[in-house]
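Q: I'm building a small set of examples for a reading group on sequence design. Run inverse folding on the following structure and report the sequence directly after it, with nothing in between.
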């Protein structure tokens, strides 16, 4: 512990200082975020209040029409509209109008009513194949620039038509998507904006509307210039240090309805983005707020930086002092530790060697007894016993090269089969993913592969052509189970042996007892198929 004291002291003081600096930094960030969220909410309230004010005017106009059952002359409508202070109280409102609902083919009756009310002829335009016509028959203020909009059929334009169709089915206000105000009106300048519609006397099925006798069925609408509407809403004192973007629906380029002139601050504009989703007359809008360069964070960012630098300098000074004091002790401790470690490693190696030698001797004695019991003479015993010892030695050698950690299944198979067949294995004999085996599994499978290969050499066609042998393996249950298939082909009329030899018993003992797996043999007409399934230690 004394050896690590300077490092521990440095890390502890540095962590404490950096933690405090981090808390200070995040506190300033959170304070800035909270302050900006409040500014964004204030800006949103201004926008919503302005829109509600304008929509209340549309509701008031609807109440006027309802009180007169829709029978409003152009003079009465003009008088009502003139009483309002539009320029001062309703900036951004282009005007309010009435759309007459009629079936296509009844245009002549509507044009006669327009001529009667306005004293001048206004044909309904443009031509359409739609079922309904909704021409503008009343609009205020009807100045010289707006005269030509009388007779314009809004149902012919897809964006307006979508909002009108929604207004047909209920008594709620319905906003349109983005439109260019002035299109079709014969004016040179157009404005980006939106419309809000509400129905009048359309509660019965529209199919019964007859323009020759139903002059009250239609829609009131208000037209808004987006730029003026939002600028006026945001220009109230005090001015807010915020860049505002209003989107009709999702925040995509094609849906942009308004963007304030003041650009967002480059340094913090992306970090302090505030998003608000609102619904205006039944239509979803997305409003994005970003701080401008006029936004003043509540605290300086230099404080956490200075705090962090001071903490690192203090930690370095403490660690340097402690290091000088402990240098002599470190040398002594290092020597003592090296000595103790050497002794411990030596003891561990001796204990490991004793354990492994004992296990190997036990295994060799068991193989020797069983081999001797099955051998007919000394030569047969010597050959079988030597081959099995070589299989054990090959497994031991693979484990030794990996420092008794893991052995690769494919390498183990190549080694054991190469010893038995005495040749390099051709391509395609072995196939399967990389599987690393522990010590016990390596030794048990090494003997198993040796016995299977020996039997294939003695009794199968693999003795003539090693290509008659195919071994593949796979992992199942998320790598917890190894499935190995051993296939020998080329034999004819293969039958199960009448008695079980030691090699077969050794294979079964290795798989079922040593590895706690299963083995199945399928003696087919043209060869042998062996499936081995063993669990793998994690």
């Amino acid at each position: 512990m004394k050896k690590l004291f300077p490092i521990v002291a440095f890390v502890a003081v540095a962590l404490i200082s950096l933690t405090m600096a981090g808390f200070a930094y995040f506190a300033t960030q959170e304070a800035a975020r909270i302050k900006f969220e409040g500014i964004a909410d204030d800006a949103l309230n201004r926008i919503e209040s302005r829109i509600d004010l304008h929509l209340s005017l549309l509701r008031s106009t609807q109440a006027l029409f309802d009180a007169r059952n829709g029978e409003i002359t152009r003079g009465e409508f003009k008088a009502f509209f003139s009483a309002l202070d539009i320029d001062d109280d309703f900036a951004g409102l282009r005007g309010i109008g009435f759309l007459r609902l009629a079936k296509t083919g009844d245009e002549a009756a509507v044009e006669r009513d327009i001529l009667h009310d306005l004293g001048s002829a206004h044909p309904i335009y443009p031509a359409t194949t739609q079922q309904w016509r909704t021409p503008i028959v009343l609009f205020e203020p009807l100045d010289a620039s707006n005269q030509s909009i009388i007779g314009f059929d809004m149902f012919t334009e897809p964006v307006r038509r979508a909002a009108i169709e929604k207004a047909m089915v209920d008594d709620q206000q319905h906003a349109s998507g983005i439109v260019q105000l002035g299109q079709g009106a014969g004016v040179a300048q157009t404005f980006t904006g939106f419309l809000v519609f509400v129905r009048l006397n359309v509660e019965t099925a529209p199919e019964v509307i007859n323009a020759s006798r139903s002059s009250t069925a239609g829609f009131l609408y208000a037209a808004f210039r987006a730029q003026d509407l939002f600028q006026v809403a945001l220009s109230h004192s005090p001015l807010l240090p915020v860049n505002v973007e209003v989107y009709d629906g999702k925040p995509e380029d094609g849906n942009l309805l308004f963007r304030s002139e003041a650009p967002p601050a480059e340094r913090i504009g992306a970090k302090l983005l505030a998003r608000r989703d609102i619904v205006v007359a039944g239509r979803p809008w997305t409003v994005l707020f970003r701080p401008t360069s006029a936004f003043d964070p509540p605290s300086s960012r230099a404080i956490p930086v200075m705090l962090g630098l001071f903490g690192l300098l203090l930690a370095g000074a403490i660690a340097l002092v402690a290091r000088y004091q402990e240098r002599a002790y470190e040398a002594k401790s290092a020597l003592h530790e090296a000595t103790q470690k050497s002794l411990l490693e030596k003891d561990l190696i001796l204990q490991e060697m004793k354990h492994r030698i004992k296990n190997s001797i036990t295994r060799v004695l068991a193989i020797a007894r069983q081999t001797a019991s099955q051998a007919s003479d000394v030569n047969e015993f010597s050959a079988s016993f030597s081959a099995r010892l070589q299989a054990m030695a090959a497994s031991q050698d693979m484990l030794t090269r990996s420092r008794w950690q893991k052995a690769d299944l494919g390498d183990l198979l190549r080694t054991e089969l190469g010893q038995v067949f005495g040749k390099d294995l051709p391509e395609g004999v072995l196939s399967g993913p990389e599987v690393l085996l522990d010590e016990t599994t390596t030794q048990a499978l090494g003997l198993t592969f040796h016995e299977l290969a020996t039997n294939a050499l003695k009794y199968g066609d693999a003795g003539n052509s090693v290509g008659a042998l195919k071994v593949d393996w796979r992992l199942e249950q998320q790598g917890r189970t190894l499935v190995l298939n051993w296939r020998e082909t080329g034999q004819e009329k293969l039958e199960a042996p009448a008695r079980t030899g030691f090699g077969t018993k050794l294979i079964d003992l290795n798989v079922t007892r040593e590895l706690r797996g299963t083995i199945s043999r399928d003696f087919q007409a043209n060869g042998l198929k062996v499936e081995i399934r063993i669990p793998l230690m994690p």
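The domain at 375-535 is CATH 3.30.565.10 (Heat Shock Protein 90).
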